[in-house]
Amino acid sequence: MTLIFDYSRLLGKIKEKGFTQASLAKQVGLSESTFNLKLANKRAFKQEEIVKTCSALDVSLENIPLYFFCVKTSENGSFERAG
Q: 34-44: buried (b, 16+ CB within 10 Å) or exposed (e) per residue?
């Protein structure tokens, strides 16, 4: 079973902090296209990328699961934290 992660909370935080996906990708050290593939569940985030993204967005490391590990759990579209 492939996990599909919900990055809607992360996308909201990106906007809240005044970033575009392109500007955040650059700050994290990724190309815009690679960052977009990760947000679309086509590529997985690496641990270092998660930490850099959290740092740029002022997200505490203890809140990583809220932004990176919410998975779709049912056909009705509900999401819950993985693990």
A: ebeebbeeeee
